[in-house]
Amino acid sequence: MIRSLFLLVISLSSLYRSTAIQADIIDDLSSYFKSSNSKEIAKNFASTIELIIIDEEDVYSKAQGEQILKDFFIKHPPVKTSIFHKINTNPNYRFGVILLSTSKETFRVSITMKKFNTNFLITELRIEPAKD
């Protein structure tokens, strides 16, 4: 009986821990956006990513996506970020909206992630001017 209870507690605690780690991915991405760290953001890209930046939309490789994001940060250096919305209740899907403020304007960054094996990877990244 005690052994069964012990195994139950261990399995539940490991389940909770992995869910908590997965839920933090949007928080991590928000800090990467704030520091304009395109390299760390790109580590979370799927092998191909749909990028929609302002008015340009296409599907890119991971390396191309990183370069495009880097160029965006050069033109629009971030000042601050805040998480506007996040969905982390689905075990195979994550979605987040980050408000990215620059010295000139604010952007709405929408991030769609799907689970591949055990990791969530960004399949779509949309950066558009925030609507007032």
TrEMBL record:
InterPro entries: DUF4783. Gene3D superfamilies: 3.10.450.50. This is DUF4783 domain-containing protein.
